[in-house]
Amino acid sequence: MPTMPALFVSHGSPMLALSDEPAGRFFDALGPSLPRPDAILLASAHFETEVPTVGAVQTPETIHDFYGFPEPLYQVRYPATGAPGLARLAAERIAAAGLPVEVDQARGLDHGAWVPLRRMYPAADIPVATLSIQPHRDPAHHYAVGRALRGLREEGVMVLASGSLTHNLRALDWRGGPDAPVSGWAQAFIDWVAAAVAEGRVDDLLNYRRLAPEAVKNHPADEHFLPFFVALGAGDLPGRRLHASVTMGALAMDAYSF
Fold first, then answer.
1. Going by C-beta distance under 8 Å and a sequence separation of 6 or more, which residues neighbour residue 29?
2. Using CA atoms, how far apart are residues 26 and 103, in angstroms rounded to an integer?
3. What is the pTM of this model?
């Protein structure tokens, strides 16, 4: 069995589930291009908890955790089965690394999970367990969680982390969409991350808020970037950038494989 990748993807607007844009077309091609996993452990920026928590629901509901979007988006369902066994195994690995961990028996799939999954695996035929982030903890904490989980990749499990390479919603050109000109401050950050990943500069990435250009402007809060560090910890460097596009002028849709 091939070793599964650890991936970071930017999930963008919930409309990515339905829209025709470069990032959506990338997701459509991504799933078929990868080794098929037995199960997926998905860390979402929209699953926030006090301590690392894995979702062990057998039949996870599709959560529409957003408002103000067209009605057809609220009709979308992603009927994947859960992966309670994987959830328990992930919890054991996290605990073995000396980190606190909990198991959630109720939470379904938020849009950070089902939007990319629907484009990558539209048949919804791969079991999914979810993993939370801790928005009050730093990148090093999330990197440690990822390191605890990296062995799962040799057991048929894809570690898929879903967030956003940049995430300043107040600075977006909402009307411009994928054709809006890219802001210089976003591009500087995008380029810095790409170079740091290609050069394997883990320490620089972990200290991105101090070292990366315009870090705070791109991430006023870093919850949407924290899944990146789970994938970084679960994977191997140097990483490989799989996709780069920007929508609404400053929402980077980059994806990486580690």
1. none
2. 32
3. 0.97
